[in-house]
Amino acid sequence: MIYSYYPGCTLKNKAKDLDRYARLSAQALGFTLEEIENWQCCGGVYPMAKDEIATKLSSVRALADAKAQGRDLVTLCSACHNVLKQVNNDMLTDEDIRTRANNYLKLDEEYCGETKVIHFLEVLRDVIGFDKLKEKVVNPLTGKKIAAYYGCLLLRPGKVMQMDNPENPKIMEDFIRAIGAEPVIYPMRNECCGGYVALEDKEAAAKRRNAVASSASGFEAEMMVTACPLCMYNLNKNDSDVPVYYFTELLAEALGVKDN
Amino acid sequence: MDRKEEILRISGVNVRKCMRCGKCSGTCPSYDEMEFHPHQFVYMVESGDIEPLLNSDSLYKCLSCFACVERCPRGVEPAKVVEAVRLAAVRQKGNNHLKAENVPELLDDETPQQLLVSAFRKFTK
After folding, report:
1. How high is the ipTM of this complex?
2. Is A125 part of any domain?
3. Of A156, A176, A244, B113, whose CB neighbour count within 10 A is largest?
């Protein structure tokens, strides 16, 4: 199985591990991530304004590229996933945005939201299946108590993202079980870590991340897992000293391909 | 075009759907940092009281986490109103909230690209 793949800016730089371990794991699980040619940065945050299209065009180009290849588009970074999926929804449902974006881009064929955007976790759940994944695990992380950190971007808005129940998700907990570990359920798992203001309001970002990490640590989590490089950056500085990992690193470790 | 009309056009939000239950503000992770809270953005825009919002730091405290959008029982989408007011502010000449020349001192060795691109998208035009 071959998927079009949108890595995004950070996976080429500060979050290389998120990308590398995903590719190694995909290989071990029998699917290929084929990077889209000449992809452009999604901008990192979904542009909500109805009156601008420029900020949506890089997403539309990636979506149209996957459509031209006849493939689903796989993402890893929570922010890229959120932006691409929400822009795709605009192209499908908002006639004004669709018309203006197509007028500007002049693609060979109009793009109208045809591409299916799926997160790597959804490939594991919906294509591979967590039961099958479990069978492929050679180094189960037995006994590890792991807190899934969804944050905001994977789940919301629930009507558009459609990954899981936005208030009571389980995809990451099921993933944690599949790699042999024990999921820790804690209240702050789907509340924002404050990462977006970590550049110019460091105090507010610290307050939010410490609230999340102390919530996880209070439920005896040994570590947290995330799919978001910005959450990783922000949460890593938490005062509770809970270590944070990309979910793909634990996946590669469980599949025995981490050092390949 | 007057300010209210501008905000409504940018956001696409029907502020009259709001029943002022305050859930958006109750669930906002930046509540403590804000002078005006999400439900206040909605009703102040509805009543045309927009200047105080345009000049408030609260515009830059929204985390774009969609908690208020998800949890509004009336589907008002307060985050879109906050973003529209923020855009009305930063689209004015010389009114960027983040200045490129100040960025280097805000970086550390681990700062992800994602943080920079999103800060520029949110805080500048």
Report:
1. 0.97
2. no
3. A156
